[in-house]
Amino acid sequence: MGVLDIVPTGVLTGDNVLKLFTYAREHQFAIPAINVTSSSAINAVLEAARDAKSPVIIQISQGGAQFFAGKGLNNDGQAASILGAIAAAHHARTVAKHYGVPVVLHSDHCAKKLEPWFVGMLEADEAYFKEHGEPLFSSHMLDFSEETKENNIAACKKYLTHKQWFVQCDWFNFGISQLATLYTIPISIINHFIVNVTHLKLNLPLGNQFWLSFPSFDRLISLEITFIERSIYISFQILLDRSSRLQSICFSKCSDMEFVSKLTSQSVRRLDFLTKNVYKKYFTKQQCSTLRHSSLGSQCKSLLIPVESRTDVIYLVKSLPNLHSLTFQCKDDPFDDGFLHWFHRHLPSTCSIDRDANQTSHIRLWIR
Q1: Under a CB-based contact definition with an 8 Å cutoff, are residues 89 and 67 in contact?
Q2: Long-range contact list for 76-84, CB < 8 A, 24+ apart?
Q3: Rounded to the nearest 10 degrees, how much is the dihedral formed by the CA atoms of 66, 67, 71, 76?
Q4: Does pTM surpass 0.70?
Q5: CA–CA separation, 16 and 102 (whole Å)
Q6: Where are the domains of the chain?
Q7: How far apart are CA 128 and CA 230, in angstroms?
């Protein structure tokens, strides 16, 4: 299944952007983000994306937007930058579909001093939405990293609560205090609500302040958890029950498959025990069997896992009924060509396999 089976060509918005990023994460590829300053630059980016058969992120900065409109225009109140960004967006929308690639249209870092540019693009989004049922741009980046904590909180309340925008949030529990990170900005969110979170990193166990700060998890699609203890099973299961759109869980510093086997979710299809495997733990045949008989394991389509032996890989491929892709690390990997040849002899003909060129200890397997 290719990316065009997941999302359409042309400029993507809303759920289609989330689908694209989820697909890229599951298939472990990056999407290039390229800043543009003219219509010819947009065309060049789209042509390169078409030839590479790759989705692409087209970005425009405040300065690039001003250049797009023309340096001869007055930019008081960011008027030229607003006009240039809107013109770039309309040009990208006009031609993108004809290049046959999915496109994310994004405005680059906007500091506090450039906020009128940001507001102007939002107004263009709203006007376009009234006519077409979707915003003009795919996404925007508001960067207040130079501002105070109070200004950041005020901006979050203004744009995330009132505009109902989505945000990636990292939550850390330090016992007597909690900390959330929104994009690159650390913000204490005591007595403040965070809404429409799509990506969440949790340092378990969860405290009362966590539940007070997050009124809803309806938009949550990926979750990374650290420091699992069996004693926090109930609170974590409550989080899963409240996350109806959750697709992916990454387990960091977790080797307790008995804990995982108790968890249930109607929506999760991706499990990652490998990416954050900082302690180099390898799962045994018994632990693989426990995963196989768990609710999360039986419905898993994409699995990343470190295992003791190559025979554990064969077991997982043959026993997980819905598995489509498997990325694994073997403790008995000698890092020679014979290792992959062994798999070619023992795997079903419906499987394809290769070694990750960027992470040579990781081997990727696809099941057709």
Answers
A1: no
A2: 77/116, 78/114, 78/116, 78/117, 78/120, 79/120, 81/114, 81/117, 81/120, 82/116, 82/117, 82/120, 82/121, 82/124, 84/60
A3: 10
A4: no
A5: 9
A6: 3-173, 187-367
A7: 49
The C-alpha atoms of residue 90 and residue 252 are separated, in whole angstroms, by: 42
The CATH classification number of 3-173 equals 3.20.20.70
> Could you tell me which of 322, 245, 329 has the C-alpha nearest to residue 280?
329
Residue 168 CA to residue 228 CA, distance in Å, equals: 21
pLDDT of 84-107, one tens digit each? 999 999 999 999 999 999 999 999
For residue 170, the SS3 value is strand
Residue 19 pLDDT greater than 80, yes or no? yes
73-84: per-residue pLDDT in tens?
A: 999 999 999 999
100 torsion bin: left (phi>0), alpha (psi -120 to 50), beta (else):
left
The token pair that represents 320 in the structure block: 């997980």
Strands 197-203 and 325-330: unpaired
CATH number of 187-367: 3.80.10
Is the Cα torsion angle 292, 294, 300, 304 positive or negative in sign? negative
Helix ranges (H only) for 157-303 are 208-213, 233-241, 257-262, 285-292, 295-299
Q: Over the stretch 58-72, which tens digit does the pLDDT of each residue have?
A: 999 999 999 999 999
Work out the average pLDDT over 263-285.
88
Q: Would you list the DSSP string of 289-348?
A: HHHHTSHHHHH-SEEEEEES-HHHHHHHHHH-TT--EEEEEETT---SHHHHHHHHHHS-
pLDDT per position as a tens digit, 162-179: 555 544 554 445 444 444
Task: In whole angstroms, give the CA distance from residue 265 to residue 268.
Answer: 6
Are 121 and 106 in contact, with CB atoms under 8 Å apart? Answer: no
Cis peptide before 205 (omega within 30 of 0): yes
d(CA 120, CA 124): 6
Tokens for 124, please give them.
């263009």
The C-alpha atoms of residue 38 and residue 68 are separated, in whole angstroms, by 5
Query: Scanning the structure block, which residue is given the tokens 């200004």?
Result: 151
Alpha helices per DSSP H over the chain: 15-26, 39-52, 62-69, 79-99, 115-132, 149-156, 208-213, 233-241, 257-262, 285-292, 295-299, 310-319, 337-346
